[in-house]
Amino acid sequence: MTQLIIVVIDGLQPAQINEYYAPNIHRFGAEGCFFENHHPVFPSVTRVNAATMVTGTNPSLHGLFGNTFVPSDFDSSRVLNAMEPELSEIASSGNRVLLTRTIQEILLEHGKEYMAVGVGTSGNAYCHNPMGEIVGGATIHPDFSIPHDLHGQIKEMYGDWPAEGLPNSPRFRHAMNVFTNHILGECDPDVALIWSSEPDKSQHVYGVGSGRSNLALTEVDLMFAELLSYIESSENCRDADVLVLSDHGYSSIVESIGLTDSLSKEGYRFGYRKGELLLAPNGGSFHIYVGESDHATAEKVVDWLMEQMWCGVIITSDKIGPIEGTISASEIGFEGIRTPDITVSMRWNSRVNPSGFRGYVYSIGGGIDMGTHGSMSRYEMNNVLLARGSSFRSHERIITPTGNVDILPTILQIMGIPIPGDIQGRVITESLKGYDPDISARMNRFEASKNCQSGVFQQYIELSEVGETQYITEGNSWCQEG
After folding, report:
1. Same-domain check for residues 285 and 188
2. Do 399 and 460 have their domain in common?
3. What is the mean pLDDT of the chain?
């Protein structure tokens, strides 16, 4: 009997869950638990958060720091696009793609299974079970499957995948057919996940809350209602707990920055040798890898960054040593084997876009008023989690901080499986029946500043904390003219 079903709606914000565009999701959240203070991990991009969901750890431990990043333990000389072919390279070399165990590796020890189907990027799908050929379970995607021979079998049983489009509803419809008939109906795993690429895809092109993005969301909502009807009528999963979540929130683009050109004009060379830089853009944030983690070069780059009107938070790795005015990666739990030398979350504001949604941010790529994410904007660092089922309280608004890092430990708790000691998330006990709903939380704030040519660069990062689990809630900067 399938015990947990997870539905991920890519890029969905809590503010978008209303009776008009998403009535079925809205009703689901009202009947179960609505987590008002839920957070992705930073960077607020998809593949990082997919990795966090299935490992219960932050990027510092699982090692996937962006949709583009440098896996220094594998190849420190190039920026890797975290897609299936490139991630397979890491696995083929004998290195781990994710440095911590995933849900399937943990479930295997208890004779249980995890299966996922998604129509987002191949990198997103790959992260769900990189070790699937060895540890079992399955990941199904239009471009590939794990195990690999499953790809042809799915195609033979259900036909060709529809072409990718905007909205991407035909592909999600096909995925839903595979999910209900094959995964839930035939395989009946203990935990099953389906991932919609909408409204994320449409919001990137048309903007948050635009007519076409709203249409994409409405189509997802209708298919979600059909899934609920299937679950309620199915012998295999009628008693399953159901989670609905998103990977990140969203912002609108105030301006696109040509970072490579700007640094080239400053005389920087690109490469992995001393004095050179590698750039890994991630929408509203980016990583800079400094050749040989040279402190002098890093300090010079930081000084330049602080003069740029689009520069928000600057985080520096312990590898390059302390730099005045920056926030140390180790202070906020961001330091790990693959931590970039410099990470920048771009500056944001609370302006309202043409469709009435708050949040603008500078971005690497994309046009004005198009949607993006990746930064520490409060509008990107607040995402969706809803839960309903026999394990969860009913008609609850959960206001304590929670995060994508809590998904795995909460699943394990419901299934009665011991939680490994390296998991950084917590069990969201305040939402579960039979537990005390009163959970204490506290806020922590890190600040840094430096005198620059144009004034005083000041920045902050705010974190919520419950026990030992931390959630970045927002971070930004400003320049106080001297």
Report:
1. no
2. no
3. 97
pTM of the predicted structure, to 2 decimals: 0.97
- The pLDDT tens digits for 22-56 are 999 999 999 999 999 999 999 999 999 999 999 99
Domain presence at residue 437: no
Any alpha helices (H) in 355-469, and if so which ranges? 407-414
Contact status, residue 253 vs residue 375, Cβ threshold 8 Å: no
Divide the 482 residues of the chain into consecutive groups of 10 and give the mean pLDDT of each group: 92 96 98 98 98 98 98 96 96 95 98 97 96 96 97 97 96 98 96 98 97 97 98 92 98 97 96 97 98 97 97 98 97 97 98 97 97 98 98 97 98 97 97 91 97 93 97 95 68
Looking at the fold, whether 299 and 240 belong to one and the same domain comes out as no
Q: How many domains does the chain have?
A: 2
Same domain, 246 and 283: no
My answer on whether 165 and 244 are in the same domain is yes
CB distance 443 to 464 below 8 Å: yes
- Contact in structure between 150 and 169 (CB atoms under 8 Å): no
CA angle 319, 51, 340 (to 5 degrees): 15
Q: Does 262 share its domain with 214?
A: no
209 and 239 part of one domain: yes
Using the Cα atoms of residue 466, residue 469, residue 474 and residue 479 in order, give the sign of their dihedral: positive
pLDDT, position 454:
84
Neighbour tally for 148: CB within 10 Å:
11
Q: Which structural domain range is residue 68 located in?
A: 4-250+380-431
The 8 Å CB, 24+ separation contacts for 316-320 are 316/341, 316/342, 316/343, 317/293, 317/341, 317/342, 319/293, 320/290, 320/293, 320/294, 320/295
- pLDDT for residue 482: 61
| DSSP letter, residue 164 | P
Indicate which CATH number applies to the domain containing 385. Answer: 3.40.720.10
What distance in Å separates the CA atoms of residue 97 and residue 46, rounded to the nearest whole number? 16
Residue 387 tokens, joined? 């839960």
Contacts of 117 by beta carbon, 8 Å cutoff, 6+ apart: 139, 140, 141, 175, 178, 179, 183, 193, 194, 195
